[in-house]
Specification:
The complex is a heterodimer of chains A (417) and B (79). With 417 residues, chain A is α/β, with parallel strands linked by helices. Chain A is built from 15 helices and 13 strands. Chain B has one domain: 2-Layer Sandwich (Alpha-Beta Plaits), CATH 3.30.70.260. The chains are: A alpha/beta (417), B alpha+beta (79). Strand 6 of chain A pairs parallel with strand 5 of chain B.
Chain lengths: 417, 79
């Protein structure tokens, strides 16, 4: 059952039919999916959701497909971890990690949005899908398109690291490297999306793509025992995830699935690319474009399309935004790994680093539930932490050498042996 | 062709009549569809209609004036 009503302009409210379309013809505002929630009254229940397989599609009535998904059918439903070791370090009483570093199949939350975008692209009749990316999105589009039998094109900057090219190329996608400044690459992709009859996931099917992020929010609430958290800390690139987690919470409240906890949403950026956090901190509505310079490449969007909407969600919810240096990002990646056994990419370091900062500032209280959104896997950005990891000590294959090393490094353990 | 762009004006350009000058310098039809202007910056959604090469030259001229020019989608390249 589809309860999708229309595409609606976020600025002027003009409504459009459900088609591959993303910009309002009147005012150039972004289009968003709107639903007729009344149709789900008494139908979409906790029991119905719990009876379904553990995938992101257990909430399918709240996603913009006409039928069942055809792409990424197994994706989503990642672990929500009670982070007791991290609670002690940070001095808080109830902390959770929503761990999309293990999202199927390409180890980032992009598999959620891509699954919805490509399933909708198939419904629209597209045979070819595309994206422009410097990392996670490229891999996710390539992998999910391969599994669905769709042709795919991935646009990347020509000097992208070989590891990231491999992460998309292995799936047989057509990779196009573009030699040019970021702004020019961006504009070319816009023109390609307008000229070729492809589903460009974050252009002409962007409204559908973005809705996939809501499943991250739904899962948090279900896994908390059908409860909305008091505080959620979200990484911000375009700012879309902030707005969609907020939308997910409001939808569950609207449908009577959770009580309103007045959840505060907090946005996290790296200081080297922090247009949204700067706007929030300065109390400005306008997002000032910046040139990105940070190791957190997956968040390095200098002119974020949803920045205005993210900053509004943050302010209206009673949250805040902060940013952290590259050194703080590396420290936070190590902290999460050493306390909870989770290796996150740089974006996760940003989110945990900002969480720590907001707790220390007193903006997030220490005695209320906090969810930290970890959205990608550290194996993809190993270069960021390579210099921060202790080199192994090399010894000869001799018990004497080992005893000597232990006596030096762990005298108590050596004495007990 | 028709090209839809977002122009961002910074503190040093926000008070200048740059879109008027654009219309004088180039044979393009300019159509403002949305705008928000404050003391320190301004954002304008603009449609440009004209020959391809004239549009290209107009965009280069805007950049040379210190105006930030983005496609209507703003950021397409994601992480």
């Amino acid at each position: 059952m589809s309860i999708v009503r229309a595409l609606k302009c976020r600025e002027c409210g003009q409504e459009y039919a459900i088609e591959p379309n993303h910009v309002c013809e009147f005012c150039f505002g972004p289009l968003e999916i709107v639903y007729d929630y009344d149709q789900l009254e008494g139908v979409f229940t906790r029991e119905l959701v719990e009876s379904r397989p553990h995938t992101m599609w257990r909430y399918k009535e709240l996603l913009p497909l006409d039928g069942d998904p055809t792409v990424g059918v197994q994706n989503g439903f990642t672990p929500l971890i009670r982070a007791r070791n991290l609670e002690k370090v940070l001095g808080v009483s109830e902390l959770y990690i929503k761990n999309d570093s293990v999202c199927h199949p390409t180890l980032s939350f992009k598999d959620r949005v891509v699954s919805v975008a490509l399933s909708k692209a198939v419904e629209f009749g597209f045979k070819t899908v595309a994206c422009a990316s410097t990392g996670n999105l490229a891999g996710s589009v390539a992998a999910n398109a391969a599994a669905a039998g769709l042709e795919s094109y991935v646009f990347i900057p020509h000097d992208l690291e070989q590891g990231k090219v491999l992460g998309a190329g292995i799936f047989g996608t057509s990779i196009v490297g573009i030699d040019g400044a970021y702004d020019d690459v961006n504009r070319l992709c816009s023109e390609v999306a307008g000229k070729y009859g492809w589903a460009f996931v974050n252009v002409n099917v962007r409204p559908f793509y973005a809705e996939g992020s809501k499943t991250y929010g739904y899962e948090i609430m279900e896994q908390l025992g059908w409860r909305a958290p008091k505080h959620v800390v979200v990484p911000m690139a375009s700012g879309s995830l902030c707005t969609k987690i907020d939308k997910a919470i409001k939808e569950f409240i609207r449908l009577g699935l959770v009580e309103d906890q007045e959840t505060a949403i907090y946005g996290a950026q790296a200081t080297g690319c922090s247009p949204i956090s700067q706007a929030v901190k300065q109390g400005s509505d306008l997002i000032k474009p910046v040139q990105a310079d940070t190791i957190a490449k997956s968040l390095a969007i200098g002119n974020p399309a949803d920045g205005y909407y993210a900053s509004r969600v943050i302010r209206d919810s009673g949250g805040w935004a902060e940013d952290v240096s590259d050194e703080e990002v590396v420290d936070a990646i190590k902290l999460l790994a050493e306390t909870e056994g989770i290796f996150t990419e740089t974006a996760g370091g940003v989110t945990l680093g900002v969480t720590r900062k907001l707790i220390e500032q007193g903006r997030i209280p220490r005695d209320e539930s906090i969810v930290v959104c970890i959205t990608g896997n550290g194996l993809k950005t190993q270069e960021a932490v390579a210099d921060a990891i202790a080199r192994p000590r090399v010894i000869r294959p001799s018990i004497h050498d080992f005893d000597a090393m232990m006596a030096e490094e762990r005298p108590a353990a050596a004495a007990d042996a | 062709m028709k090209l839809r762009v977002y122009l961002t004006f910074h503190e040093d350009t926000v008070r200048q009549p740059i879109i008027w000058k654009l219309g004088k310098e180039f044979d393009v039809v300019t159509n403002i569809r949305t705008a928000e202007v404050k003391d320190h910056m301004g954002l304008v959604g603009l449609e440009l209609d004209g020959d391809d090469d004239v549009i290209e030259a107009a965009i280069d001229w805007l950049k040379a004036q210190g105006v930030h020019v983005d496609p209507i989608e703003q950021n397409i390249i994601e992480g």
